[in-house]
Design brief:
This protein has 125 residues and is mainly β. It contains no helices and nine strands. Strands 1-8-3-6 form a four-stranded antiparallel β-sheet, with no helix packed on it. Strands 5-4-7 form a three-stranded antiparallel β-sheet, with no helix packed on it. It has a two-stranded antiparallel sheet with strand order 2-9.
């Protein structure tokens, strides 16, 4: 049995990937949710925004996050992603293999984590 445990800090921040300060936590006990998302090659989510602080790890592939104002960033395998909160955006798998993304949400118990925006039809490319 090995005792050589390696620890690597992937991120430590109070800002989302676009440089915006994260919102304050609500008072009370948080509900933690962990989601594993798999994006097939070429998949694009609908436009949406998150209501809670969340971050994730790209386990496989490359995921591009695009905001309605055209701002975007691509996250690569092994990278930590601190997601935007309250900003409308979508995720795109522009790579050549499926994306596997593990996301961690910190919210009030029962809080809706994601709100979809099907009314938005802009193409930012």
């Amino acid at each position: 049995m090995s005792t050589d445990i390696k620890t690597t800090e992937l991120t430590r921040t109070s800002q989302s990937w676009d440089g915006v300060q994260l919102p304050d936590f609500p008072k009370g006990k948080p509900e933690l949710t962990v989601l594993r998302m798999t994006f097939p090659k070429g998949a694009v989510t609908g436009w949406h925004h998150h209501t809670a602080v969340n971050y994730g790890i790209v386990e496989q592939g490359e995921l591009t996050i695009v905001c309605t104002d055209g701002k975007e960033r691509t996250f690569h395998e092994g990278e930590a992603l601190v997601e935007v909160v309250g900003t409308i955006h979508r995720g795109e798998n522009r790579g050549n293999k499926p994306v596997i993304l593990d996301m961690f949400y910190f919210a009030e118990p029962g809080q809706v984590l994601t709100i979809q925006h099907p009314e938005i039809e802009c193409d930012v490319h």
